[in-house]
Description:
The complex is a heterodimer of chains A (229) and B (276). Chain A has 229 residues and is α+β, with helices and mostly antiparallel strands. Helix content of chain A is 39%, strand content 24%. Chain A has a single domain (28-228), classed as Aminohydrolase, N-terminal nucleophile (Ntn) domain (Glutamine Phosphoribosylpyrophosphate, subunit 1, domain 1). In chain A, the strands form two sheets. Chain A has a five-stranded antiparallel sheet with strand order 8-1-2-9-10. A five-stranded antiparallel sheet of chain A has the order 3-4-5-6-7. In chain A, helix 4 (160-170) packs antiparallel against helix 5. Chain B is of the alpha+beta class and 276 residues long. Chain B has seven helices and 13 strands. Chain B has helices spanning 16-23, 97-118, 124-137, 139-143, 186-196, 203-220, 250-275, and strands spanning 47-48, 51-56, 59-64, 68-70, 73-76, 82-86, 89-96, 148-156, 161-167, 173-176, 179-182, 236-241, 244-247. In chain B, the strands form two sheets. In chain B, strands 1, 4, 5, 6, 7, 8, 9 and 10 form an eight-stranded antiparallel sheet that branches. In chain B, strands 11-2-3-12-13 form a five-stranded antiparallel sheet, with helices on one face. The longest helix of chain B has 26 residues, at 250-275. Chain B is globular, with a radius of gyration of 20 Å. The A-B interface holds A 51, 54-56, 73-74, 76-81, 83-88, 98, 102-103, 105-106 and B 1-5, 16, 19-20, 23, 25-26, 105-106, 109, 112-113, 116-117, 119.
Amino acid sequence: MTMPFYAPPEQVMKDKADYARKGIARGRSLVAFRYDGGIAIVAENTSATLRKVSEIYDRIAFAGVGRYNEFDQLRIAGVRHADLKGFAFSREDVDARSLANAYAQSLGQVFTHEMKPMEVEILVAEIGLDADGRGDQLFHILYDGTVVDEDDWVVLGGETEEISERFEEALPDAPRSLADGVRAAVAALAGPERTLTAESLEAAVLDRGNDRRAFRRLTDDEVAAILTG
Amino acid sequence: MSLPRFGPHNDPGPDFAALLRLTGTGPETGSLGASAQHPQAPPEIPHGTTCVAVRYDSGVVMAGDRRATAGHLISNHRIEKVFPADRHSGVAIAGAAGPSAEMVRLFQLQLEHYEKVEGTPISLEGKANQLGQMVRANLPSAMQGLVVVPIFAGFDTAASRGRIFEYDVTGGRYEERDHAATGSGSLHADTVVKLGYRTSMARNAAVDLVLDALYVASDADSATGGPDPVRDVFPVVAVIDAGGYVRLDDAELRRRTERLLRRHRSRREGDEAGAS
């Protein structure tokens, strides 16, 4: 009888986590932050068609970094989750917290039970109904199902430490305008050696001023105007 | 609720109705109300009636009266039969009120779900076909008396013009060039529209025309409700152009309805004066 080699569980988990982190670090990062009119998400993305930031529901947005096919699968699952819930109950019963928990459950399940963990980090953002942004929520979910409830801003992807440091320094205190936030985000994503143009960025907002569906993408022209302004 | 995940073999794609079937949360196909045990639907369930749509120079106008009847009784004075389907289209429904409302809700979700999953909205023609499939799926219920007959209209952003689609109970889809009507008062309403229609009408003229059409229909059809200035009940009127779906507010409708009634009165008095 052949015996499989023994590997301690700690080692197995560590290997999986390293594998996932390496995959995530290969992609470009993104930044999300609250501004006076809602929540903005700015990602470095050279593709104009393969999106990292998307709409999930009326007041909920999704963003993912890492392997595109994996976080896109999660995005679609999230849209399905939200639409099914809204259909079965009511639109106001769809919330980011329960969606974040569903994602965490699913990612945790894959991480512990399957050979290959998902090489993704995702963000579920929701704007609250209050005009002062008290109900805003940012849930940062890691490849192993860890959920972090972020307060004001968050960085997802590789090199998060460097980008976070730069972002924290450049970001004005709340309440801040969208333009100031975007400029800080782009500077943090680019770092000292590079400059990023509007074409290599993807930006979207959950805008409290919009109708029922708060999600809106910023066009390249809008981003360029902000960066030069 | 856990996250709905599918393999490549059974993935429903952007189809919300298929997702409902796969997850077992939706209504059973073709049985929105009736079932084999109840071969004939009860006659006294609420029915909504007359809706019209008219194309004008930069879009379409849709309108529906506010009455629901159950048998010989008026069951609702303020029911709504015209709804936004998405940003650039609307749907107006005549027929059994319950299944109609359910169909509209499912249709709205179907369009939004597709747009979110695919990242791009369905073409206007595609939306019209989707609605046709839903009407077709309702055929077994329709055979038992729960008929649902919608009008679909919208602004085709690709062709830059308004378009109108009519349906029959089997899901047959017919594009109308200029105007359409559905429901028990549709015969009268359609005649008024036909007589008053001009190619490239302006928005205001088209709005006045649909109000007139519903007023005349309510005069001849007991299931169609007329305007009620006492209780502030006016038809639901929506205008869809390049800017999207906009429902007219009551202030504008009251103004236009009062002018319409004055016009009818003065025409009548003029006739009587001329005859004597």
